[in-house]
Every structure is written in C-alpha cells, then in structure tokens.
C-alpha cells in the first residue's frame, strides 16, 4: 500500500496544549474497587468497534502530548501510552480532560503500583507484554479493562481462565503474524484477541478478518521519522488512514 500517496485536503491544525493547572487534577475514585457500571465491557466494545489501538511512546512529554493529539484528531478512539514515556501520567490526565469521548490506556504496565497510578490518571484500560497476575486479579472486579500479553495457547487459556476479558498476542509478527492469529482462533474462537507488534496499516484487514478483535499500531501511526521531525501532519494522516481501515473491515464483518 502506497501510504505516501495519501494526503489531506487541508493542513492539520494543532490544538492548544492544556494549561499546567490541569496537571494537578486528582481522581478520587477508589482504585481496584468494585464497579457495577460495566465500564470495562464498554471499553472492550469500543476497542472491538474501532479495530485499532494506537500505541504511543515518546522521548518527552511535549512530544507525547502533541503526537497524541494529532492521532486523536485524526480519528483514533483508543490510545495507549507506554509507561516509559516521561511524565506519562501528566500527559494522560491532560488528554483525558480534553478528549472525554476517547478511550485511554497505559501500556507496558508490569507492576500493580503502576496499574493503580494509571487508573488514578484516568486510564480505562491497561496493557502488558506478559500476564501480570497481581494486575489481573486486582482489576477483575473494577471498571478498568486489563489486556494481558500472551504468546502460547497455554498462556492464552490460563489468562482467560483467570478472568481476562481479552488478551494481547505478543510479539505477533515474530510468531507468524496473521497465520498465527488464524491458527489460535480455531481452538479459541471464544477468546477475544488483540494482535500486537510490527503490524502495518495495510495488514489491519487481514488480522481482523482472521479473528483479531483489534490490532495495536505503534510505528505505523507514530512513524519514527515523523516523530523525530515533529511532523504532526503526517501522524494525523496515518491515524486517519488507520482509523478508516479499521472501521471499514469491522463494519464489513458485522454485515
């Protein structure tokens, strides 16, 4: 797919950054507390409806903030910010306030404390490259969706049996890509799966058609060159294209 030929009819205009006073906002909601409003199920449905989770990692908070806004304005509805991003919770709090209709999560969450801090900052879903049982058990009755990382059939079944509503197959490209997802869905058709690692926009349709509930797109949206050059127009374009591809394949499969 010739992504370079995809262009916008206008220049993406950066929305003003949030004022610094928002960074001190606090969330008084109890962490890991029981919730009966089904927010986790709603988040899961939103992810499945969009078919795309944008995964952002950046070298500084300002770059993360502006790149995130470009992707969100481009149509991304589910955004994951990786824990290693400097001031990740400050960035998250500002985005949650400015984009209340969007779904935000934190990725590469490896400890229960980081999970709690993410929830305080407004995360509605958490992702890990492996299954962290402390997190899975801790959020099992909360309003946060935990997406643990799995690789083998045994890991998939174990995570699901322990309460995971959906799992992240990682690193999917190294394991066989679309073919691996297709093979896994034969015995585990009842287990929702997100495909993650090394996925490009032109493969969205194949992954979802073969059983993935959604795909995680990192460099495919937050292109390394665009990030280094702070080319937010480019990120907006890629986000718009990915959003359209995900929406089209999900709608087609629902018919």
UniProtKB/TrEMBL annotation:
InterPro entries to which the protein is assigned, alphabetical: Aldlse_KDPG_KHG, Aldolase_TIM
Pathway linked to the protein: Carbohydrate acid metabolism
Keywords noted in UniProt: Carbohydrate metabolism, Lyase
A GO molecular-function annotation: lyase activity
Keyword Lyase: yes
Subunit structure: Homotrimer.
Similarity comment: Belongs to the KHG/KDPG aldolase family.
Protein name: KHG/KDPG aldolase
Species assigned in the record: Solanum verrucosum
